[in-house]
Specification:
This is Ankyrin repeat domain-containing protein. InterPro entries: Ankyrin_rpt-contain_sf. This protein is globular. Helix 26 runs antiparallel to helix 27. The protein is built from 35 helices and no strands. It is mainly α and about 475 residues long.
Amino acid sequence: MRRRQAQRSALQDEGSHTAPDRSHKCWMPELVLRFAGFLTCNEVAFILRLANKATAAQFGRPQDRTVRLSLPVPHHAFVWRWGGARAMHSLTRSRRRQLACLTARSGSTANLELLLARGAKGHVLDQEVFDAAAAAGQLEVCRLLWQQGCCYGPNLLHHAAAGGHGAVYEWCLETIPGCADHHTAGDAARAGNVALMDWLLLAEPSPNVSKLLAGAASGCDWLTLVGLCTRYSWRVQLDRTRARVLAAAAGSPTADWRLKVEWLELRWYPFSAAACVEAARLPDGLARLQWLRPQGYPLSAEVVSAAASSGNVEALQFVLAAGVALDDDAAQGMVEDAAAAGHLAVLRALPQTPGVLRSLRSHAAPAATENGRLQVVTWLVGMLGGAQVLTERVSKSAVRSGSMELLAWLHAHGCPWDASAFAAAAEWGSDEQLEWLAARGCPMGAEGEAYMRAAAHGDLSMLHGADVLARL
């Protein structure tokens, strides 16, 4: 009896000595770095970085902390951010639709269903969201949207073809009534998807040759372009069609763009300013223009606009130095595009002609504020003065940007507003903007107008979520 008790005591003592804890070794930086190589960027941001302080510090770069909504987001993290009753309180109408589009592109049906459950059907079941899913090749998302009654537009097949997604393309043809094939081989060619282009051409005996060859000149390599031009040369007779093909080659992002241009030139494809327009939009636009101009390609006001809207200051200066004149319409379009895109360097480089100055005074600030470009507005006020720049129209445009920082800056600098700003917030803005405007005494307009603006778009979240509307 005593011997058995002694044996039990010995076993208990032996079991009490646990093995040494080596778990900390799995968090050695070199091992964690290898683990991270098997994770998506969103998993690193939402899971790995939250494991402990050491991994948070190890993955502390901006790219490690950035969440990309167009890629799959862990569902628990998506619920944490977008599952609350006021999660979209600060999002404008366009931002809510953008969230739905990015979620559709990510392929996460669970996250998209969460948005539907949170009452965002008006933003999710939209043709822009369907197009985004098709362009990203997310077949399961397309199926979900179709089952939920999402509307679709005429470009659904074009988006699937441009993305090179044959499975989505076939599903659309088989499933969606009236989703007919309308010359989509050119979209596949422009995206450089030669295999899908060939497959589409088998089922398309009479393609849109102009669109097909222009797409190939832009997105395909030289050999593919040569084959298509040889095959369809008898159907390319009009000079405007041939000029379109040559212009697409001049703006091609492929490495052999110059070879394509030279080959088309030898076959008497006509020169046009459209070639310089396409070239001016690219980051290496200056080098392309410097090569095209000695060949005899003309310049035009459209080339100036293309360089300005792309923020290509060097190309813009090159074209202006060549003596291209700008009429008032061209100046207005150029100023609006540059201001909307936030290309402050372009605005500074523009010649101070009467047409440009008129456009800067009348059109630059609304275009900039609608897109949240505070730095452009600040520059305009400094150059022209607040009296000429800050108007009721600017306040109304700023609402659509969704930038509270911009709205606060305008208010602090005395920018006037009227009831149109409040109506724009109800129609295009966010709950947060409505409350902010009401708290600062912005005129609300006729009774019930804000309701009507929100209801016109079926925006139930705005109607139910903004406390200020309930107090009207």
